[in-house]
Fold:
Amino acid sequence: MSGEDVFGIGRQFTHGESRDDNTATINVSLHEQQLEVFNTPARHIVCTCGRRWGKTHFARAWGIQGTLLNETAQGVPLTPDHEVWYVAQTYDRARAMMWRPLKIQAREIPGAKIYERDMIIEMPNGRLFRSVGADKENSLRGNGISHAILDEYAFMKPGVYEMVIRPAQMEIRGRTLFIGTPEGKNHFYELAKRAQADTTGTWKFFNFPSWGNPRIPKDEIAAIRAELTTSAFNQEVGASFDSVGMGILNAESIEVLDKLPEAESFTHYVSVDPAGFGSHQGLTNSQIAKLDEHAIASVAVGESGWYVTNIDHGRWQPRETALRILRAVKHSQSRVLGIEGGSLMSAIDPFLREEMRRMSIYPKIITLSHGRKKKTERIFWSLGGRIQHKKLFLIKGKWNNAFLNQVKDFPNPMAHDDLIDAVAYVDQMATTIFDTDPGEVEDMSYFEMADEEAGY
Structure:
């Protein structure tokens, strides 16, 4: 079926309507990609789309069809108590985006009733299509929901689905359409990952850039590509989660090398950004994925810049963490080990001392601090200038992609930054080592970073 074709939604007439047949056809023009989503049988659909792909137009068709049904795919009867909801970010956006065109569409349905004040369409079978705003979530309780559309879900609080929509679907195994443009690696991103990982057919993920809409001229896509930053274009037009950071750290300026330059001498450092400890028992895989990781960065500092030779990252208990730290020290031949201070360092310390004696490795341990700066400021001032001036290099390793992705996402609060945070801490260590014998310094909290290559 081509993008200019239309589909017919069969509608069952009930409540004693006098007609020779029992169906009517509502013509709604959908392009090819919209039809692909429309025809999926999955119960929960996650659809990330670029701007002007036709998200709300499609959502209206999907919702109308859901309201006209008299039973679920499993044969469970649908009654007027089972509503269809279109949920926008706010009540005003629900009225502007859905309600006005929905009223026009409803006038094509003989017997449909329009309730202006409550933004409700009542279909001839007695079932309701309701438009609501997520900003008034406490007023949304009490109704059963057969189909829910969450438009621009990335901009809503996740509690709207988890606390309001999902419990209202239990009785009849209601369906959900999450649709919108990415906005950082937030709850919409986590939901997209869940849908991609599903193997049961319950969830289905779709990703469509703006140019999937055949009505958008190709030269317009080329023009907007030239006008927007790469990050903005990839997110808003390409519907990509991979370039949704604020772009203040340019990952494209970081070169990946096979090995350290041979003609240069280096001072080696190991810096550690520890994460929390504890059992992950009872947590789902998606919940575990949201947890911070320990990050152990090995960095060689020379005249030409910083060379990150390795980053060991993961979630381990204190003893294993201590062992991995000392292995990094041994492998990099670093004389100085920096660890972020606080309760997490205290949890590692006894195991670290024990392993140091066992392995006969005795680096100078430095307590690293935030230096009275917010984490985002500290990371930016440490890495921003070095990246911009192409003085930060990576030695090829399995960890490279994880590091570069964190650079792209920074400073998105919903994305991980453990690896780049560990590398940023080297700024305190390297600045100090040039001025002071490492054996003389234990607490670095009073040091102010001052390095013109850091970009300030």
Summary: Residues 84 and 126 are 12 Å apart (CA to CA). Residues 343-359 form the longest helix (17 residues). Confidence is low (pLDDT under 50) at residues 1-22, 283-289, 432-456.
